[in-house]
Write a structure and sequence with these properties.
heterodimer, A: about 725 residues, alpha/beta, Rossmann fold, 5-stranded parallel β-sheet, 3-stranded antiparallel β-sheet, 29 helices, B: about 600 residues, Arc Repressor Mutant, subunit A, about 55% helix, ORC3_N (chain A), phosphoprotein (chain A), Origin recognition complex subunit 3 (chain A), nucleus (chain A), DNA replication (chain A)
Chain lengths: ~725, ~600
């Protein structure tokens, strides 16, 4: 069997284990034995319902779920769906990314093309563009790739991107510069390496010069991608060197700067800064790009999968506290899609475009069973029971046909429900003059908490402070949002669907306009409803004493009407924003992805916790025979775990002799063990080496045969 | 307080035996502690002062111990006490000193018994509890050096048996502090009772009080950290492994081969559990993610199994899999790139010499055939050979190529620190916790690692037998050079013997104290220059070239170690313990 072959190959001392690098080809003998997945697939293939052509099996990456009884069609369906959904989303994201940098790219290209006013031959200053990318160094890579692609298209001349990692010293940088510059136009190997009978060294800028001459290059663009990470002296030397070559090679420099131009300049020596002149270009900051991506990829009405509030919250927390990078957000989003389609057998129902009839044909009894396990199904049943529809509830549980009806209904209303949420999202965001951040708002809405949220309260309060004119503007904004929809969210206007609301709003608007016109006529402004209600406080100072008296405000007819109007609007809005919690909807699991914990582990590992846990609680992983479930020392634990336990109890200095004695005692306490000391010693050795490997101990110089403790658990 | 202390101490200094009777047993401990504490303060004062005058006499190890107390000492001496610093008892006449000093008048008589006391530290504990200082004061006529040497000798003779290092330390302290002014320290303490000594001298008393209470349980992690790193030196026994016959490679491997792990089945089950997600991993790889697996246990066999899985799951075109063993010491990034290049096209390509250049050529090579996918499996990506930032940058750029799929394993608990956010996003890793509990068979050279922990790295040569074997095959000159080296090292060990022991003692203290410490003495070695001079003198070699050549041979066999000390001088040493060195020397001489 497979394990025999394996243990053999690993206990035996393979030379291949100690070869630094090699090309792996599994030995032919255990080829089949080792292959579990094929076996599994054989089982699937053996199912009668499946008749798939051979190659599609091979292209199939997804696994059959539901205890491997899912049909291959479904698996295929899921995989196709994933590819379709993700590629749509990805395209949207990419277009935004390209747009976001578009301005910067255009500006930089223009600068490189004609670097300003002074370009006389005797000017030795190097034109430089400082691209302030912000602290997000992870996205610099993308920017510079775009930049060099763009420049390559529009500029005649080589473009070289330098990274701090490659640039250890001057010679290496020049070598790389020349190599990259000259290799860019292919087949130019025969470049004159020799001149005037002498051979040029490969870091001689003469090579570059002759290259430039030969190709008539306009510019030689050198980009320092992460300029802060370069050795300052190196940058200074390079700048001065380039400047001295300016009369022969038309250099242009690009600096990617994460902090600020001022700080960058401070680092340069004066001599070097004198050699530079240039402009600063700002790149759109991460947070605003992020918001846009979020709107187009997550909140978009066409997005097939939505992230739940929990997952968004954790992603955002990570974004703010740790990574600050758009890429990582995109990657996380992609992973959410992957998880959803790979791991959720019901995701075949996610697709909005396919008709539900077609899908239901694919469904097998196992799917219905799976649906009955969903929390949202349970909620549905509970609802039915509460409303005394016991028969219906029973039917739903027992009869697949009835369930199918229910599913169909849910699928049909699904889009409407989501649309409703998104519309509310859009209206809310566009109605206020200072809307909360889209991501926060999204989270609130998808928690189903908008109606009780601070956002709504604040919005309603702000209405009360409005004058009729403000109110008109406010209502016009709402109307505009409803009529025009949103481009970013891909929402079309839905005025005809929400006629009631529009009519009401129009009414209110008319009245408000009338009021404000009236008030303008009689030259008495109408106060906001807040101002009307708050009692005017009048302070008078009489004989050095303050007297407070309340001013009774008199309310005019118009104001009374205005108050009514405001109340009406608040009620309307409250009604409009009373949204259902998406998590209460039946079958929300199909389109809402909301399990944050396993998700973050994949991107932010906690290896230390994992190792500590494995060593201090090995019984969670292995069945440690008798008494294994208890904490503490047990001879059935793996040796390293035993040592680790003593290690935890010890102070900062550990006597190895004592450690060994303890270890030996624990091991020999095992029953039936002949207590072979050498064997125990071997295990002791192994455990110690393990601890050293994970950096928990080191040799102590303080005392002979002592270990110094380096790591503390849980810190 | 002064009064009370006197009451305690006077009787016992006058009469040695009956003191126990006079002091009620119940109070004994308390008295002992108070008196000790008080006297310590005084001692510190004197010691500080003492240091000013006699700093040359003191063993370095002790010196810094008392450094912080220097100011105290000054203060005390300013107190108006007649600080007579009598080297000889005769100069201190009892009348000259403060009235309390009648205690001292009697002490000289008991010098003999004092000696005896010293020979048995245990006894000292018992009595010095109650009346520590006066007893010690008796030895006031000894010079610091002589006395500390004596303690040291005694200690080495007794094999440092006492568990209670504090007492030893106290005694050593006392001896050397009582050096000149033991006689008046009682007076001193009386005058400056409240001056707190910075060093927390009452350590002995404190630890004694602490010792009966078991270490607190259920501490929070940070509390535990501070508890275990609290002041004072950690108390560990003086047992050592000298009696244990250590394993050598041969024995180790034969034991490993015969060893049957009772948990094999469980480990296997765990392994299978992880193997169930292979398909998922494959999917993730196909989506341009790279994988990094972490967790306890060797992940080598798991990844190899995954390699098999990849190999078998694609029936049409055999996928190309490159395996990198990150734990192999001589691995370089060039090996990695070269191997991948050969995997792409079997014809040998000119790759260039710089890694960055090689990477570019490699990418160009990859793009010739877009359909080709290479899976690169890196075992232990966080081990030393691949740890350098430039290497990681190259690897990450390699992995970000769409045709390259990287599967890596990481062992260290802090491996994410290897990568900054930029590298991390280039790598585009998905992390999976795969705790396998498998022994690190290939990754770790267990025997070497443990011997390094034990400070017996000399065993790498194969112990002293190995050394003599190597020496047999070397010319006479080399043998002689080695003999000189060992000889010199032994001399250095002997010369610093007293010092090292004291040094060892102080090494046991806090790390803060170590900054004063004589780290130079922790590992005796021979200066490169000195050795060269000796070698020239003995006509072993005529110039430095020769000398270097001879040394190189030893280096190659790892028979000597060279390191730079704090001053930058090169020190050579043979990585063996003293006894082993002696036997080697005998071997050579015979």
């Amino acid at each position: 069997m497979s394990d025999v072959g394996e243990t053999n190959s690993h206990t035996g001392f393979d030379t291949i284990d100690h070869q630094p690098a090699y090309i792996y080809t599994p030995s032919g003998t255990n080829d089949d034995a080792l292959e579990r997945p094929t076996k599994r697939r054989k089982v699937a293939r053996g199912r009668p319902s499946v008749l798939q052509p051979h190659d599609s099996i091979n292209s199939l990456v997804f696994e059959p779920l539901l205890g491997e009884i899912e049909t291959l069609e479904c698996v295929q369906q899921r995989q196709d769906l994933f590819e379709k959904c993700w590629s749509e989303t990805d395209a949207r994201i990419q277009s935004i990314l390209n747009e976001a940098n578009e301005d910067t790219l255009a500006e930089v290209t223009a600068f490189v093309d004609s670097p300003g006013d002074i370009n006389q031959d005797d000017d030795e200053r190097v034109p430089a563009s400082f691209i302030v990318t912000g602290p997000n160094i992870a996205s610099q890579d993308l920017l510079f790739k775009q930049l060099s692609a763009r420049l390559k298209k529009e500029i005649n001349g080589p473009i070289v991107t330098l990274r701090s990692g490659d640039a250890s010293n001057m010679k290496a940088v020049l070598k790389q510069l020349i190599r990259d510059a000259t290799n860019q136009r292919s087949e130019d190997e025969e470049l004159s390496q020799e001149r005037n009978g002498r051979k040029l060294l490969n870091y001689d800028l003469d090579i570059l010069q002759s290259y430039v001459k030969k190709h008539g290059s306009q510019r030689v663009v050198v980009a320092f991608q992460d300029s802060e990470a370069f050795d300052t002296n190196l940058v200074v030397d390079l700048v001065i060197l380039f400047s001295s070559w300016m009369d022969r090679i038309p250099f242009t420099l690009l600096f990617g700067i994460a902090t600020s131009v001022e700080l960058f300049q401070e680092r340069l020596s004066r001599a070097a800064s004198r050699c530079l002149y240039g402009f600063r270009f700002d790149v759109e900051q991460t947070s605003s790009i992020l918001e846009r991506i979020f709107q187009s990829a997550v909140a978009n009405s066409k997005a097939s999968l939505r992230l739940g509030s929990e997952i968004v919250a954790s992603l955002m927390e990570r974004q703010h506290d740790h990574v600050q990078s758009v890429q990582s957000f995109i990657v996380a989003l992609k992973y959410a899609y992957m998880c959803h389609f790979y791991g959720n057998a019901l995701s075949i129902l996610t697709d909005p475009s396919t008709s539900s009839q077609l899908l239901l044909k694919l469904m097998k009894p196992c799917h219905f069973e799976a649906i009955r396990m969903l929390p949202s199904f349970r909620k549905l049943i509970e609802l039915r029971v509460e409303s005394q529809e016991l028969d219906r509830a029973r039917e739903l549980i027992q009869d697949d046909a009835i369930l199918v009806q229910e599913i169909e209904g849910a699928l049909e209303s699904k889009d409407g429900n989501i649309l409703r949420l998104l519309r509310a999202f859009h209206v809310f965001a566009s109605a206020l003059s200072e809307p909360p951040s889209g991501i926060d708002l999204y989270m609130t809405i998808f928690e189903g908490a908008l109606s009780n949220s601070d956002y709504l309260k604040r919005a309603l309060d702000s209405i009360k402070r409005m004058t009729p004119n403000d109110l008109v503007v406010f209502i016009q904004r709402i109307k505009g949002a409803i009529e025009n929809g949103s481009h970013e969210l891909d929402l079309d206007g839905w005025a005809d669907e929400d006629e009631g609301l529009i009519r009401e709003l129009r009414d209110v608007e008319m009245k408000a306009v009338g009021l404000s016109e009236n008030s303008a006529d009689i030259e008495k402004s109408i106060r906001s409803s807040d101002a009307i209600h708050s009692k005017g406080l009048r302070t008078t100072v009489i004989a050095q004493r303050v007297q407070l008296s309340y001013e009774k405000s008199t309310i005019t007819e118009a104001e009374k009407e205005f108050i009514n109007l405001i109340d009406h609007v608040s009620k309307l809005l409250e009604q409009y924003f009373a949204l259902e919690n998406p998590k209460d909807l039946f079958l929300n699991e199909l389109w809402l992805c909301d399990s944050a914990d396993s998700f973050l582990d994949v991107f932010a590992p906690r290896p230390r916790a994992a190792i500590e846990n494995a060593l201090s609680a090995p019984y969670e992983y292995l069945t440690c025979e008798i008494g294994g479930s208890e904490e503490g020392l047990s001879s059935t634990h793996p040796p390293t775990a035993i040592i680790y336990q003593s290690y935890l109890e010890a102070g900062s200095l550990i006597n190895m002799a004592d450690l060994w004695t303890t270890f030996h005692e624990i091991l020999s306490s095992k029953e039936g063990d002949e207590g072979d000391e050498r064997e125990a010693l071997m295990q002791f050795y192994r455990a110690l080496a393990d601890l050293k490997l994970v950096g928990m101990v080191k040799q102590s110089k303080k005392k002979a045969d002592h270990l110094a403790k380096v790591a503390w658990k849980g810190l | 307080m002064k009064r009370k202390k006197q009451a305690d101490e006077t009787p016992d200094t006058q009469e040695h035996q009956p003191d126990q009777k006079k002091v009620p047993p119940t109070n004994e401990l308390n008295h002992g502690i108070t008196s000790r504490r008080a006297s310590h303060k005084g001692e510190d004062g004197i010691a500080g002062h003492n240091q000013l005058t006699h700093s040359k006499d003191q063993p370095v190890g002790e010196a810094h111990e008392d450094e912080p107390a220097k100011s105290v000492g000054k203060a005390a001496s300013m107190d108006g006490n007649p600080i007579v610093t009598p080297r000889k008892r005769s100069r201190v006449s009892p009348t000259q000193v403060l009235p309390e000093d009648e205690t001292i008048g009697t002490t000289p008589n008991k010098t003999l018994s004092g000696k005896k006391l010293f020979s048995t530290p245990v006894k000292v504990i018992g009595t010095s509890e109650a009346n520590g200082t006066p007893r010690l004061a008796r030895n006031a006529d000894r010079s610091a050096r002589r006395k500390s040497t004596r303690t040291l000798i005694e200690r080495s003779v007794l094999g440092n048996t006492s568990d209670n290092d504090e007492e030893d330390e106290d005694i050593a302290q006392h001896i050397y502090e009582s050096d000149d002014e033991g006689g008046i320290e009682v007076a001193e303490t009386g005058n400056a009772p409240e001056t707190p000594s910075k060093r927390g001298r009452p350590k002995g008393a404190k630890t004694r009080r602490r010792s009966p209470t078991p270490p607190p349980q259920d501490l929070l992690p940070h509390e535990k950290y501070f508890f275990q790193n609290r002041g004072g030196r950690p108390k560990t026994s003086d047992n050592n492994l000298s009696s244990l016959a250590l394993l050598d490679h041969e024995e180790y491997f034969s034991l490993v081969r015969n060893f049957k792990d009772p948990q094999t089945d469980d480990i296997k089950a765990l392994h299978d559990l992880h193997a169930k997600s292979f398909n998922q991993w494959g999917f993730e790889l196909s989506q341009d993610f790279n994988l990094c697996i972490y967790g306890w246990g060797s992940k080598r066999s798991l990844l190899m199994r995954f390699a098999d899985h990849i190999y078998n799951s694609q029936t049409v075109a055999k996928p190309k899999i490159v395996v990198i063993n990150g734990y192999v010491h001589n691995l370089t990034i060039r090996d990695v790139l070269n191997t991948i290049a050969t995997a792409i096209s079997s014809s040998s390509q000119k790759m260039g010499s710089q890694p960055a250049e090689m990477l570019e050529n490699l990418v160009a090579l990859l793009e010739e055939d877009k359909s080709q996918n290479i899976t690169v499996i890196v075992h232990s990506i966080d081990r030393a050979p691949l740890r350098r930032p430039t290497t990681q940058a190259i690897l990450s750029r390699l992995s970000s190529h769409p045709q390259i799929r990287l599967v890596a394993s990481a062992d260290h608990p802090s491996f994410p620190l290897l990568w900054d956010s930029s590298l991390r996003s280039t790598y585009n890793f998905l992390f999976h916790d795969c705790t396998t509990f498998q022994p690190y068979v290939a990754e770790v050279d267990v025997v070497d690692e443990v011997h390094e922990l034990l400070g017996r790295s000399g065993r790498r040569v194969g112990g002293k037998e190995g050394v003599s074997f190597v020496l047999k095959s070397l010319p006479e000159n080399a043998k002689n050079l080695f003999r000189i080296l060992i000889g010199e090292q032994l001399v250095a060990m002997d010369g610093s013997y007293g010092d090292t022991l004291v040094g060892e003692d102080d090494d046991d203290h806090d790390d803060n104290e170590r900054r004063f410490g004589n780290s130079r003495k922790t590992e005796p070695g021979v200066e490169y220059r000195t050795l060269y001079q000796k070698a020239v003198e003995e006509f072993i070699c005529s110039n430095e070239m020769n000398f270097r050549t001879l040394l190189k041979e030893f280096h190659d066999h790892q028979m000597i170690q060279s390191r730079k000390d704090a001053m930058g001088t090169e020190m050579l040493s043979v990585p063996f313990r003293k006894e082993e060195l002696e036997t080697i020397l005998e071997d050579i001489m015979s």
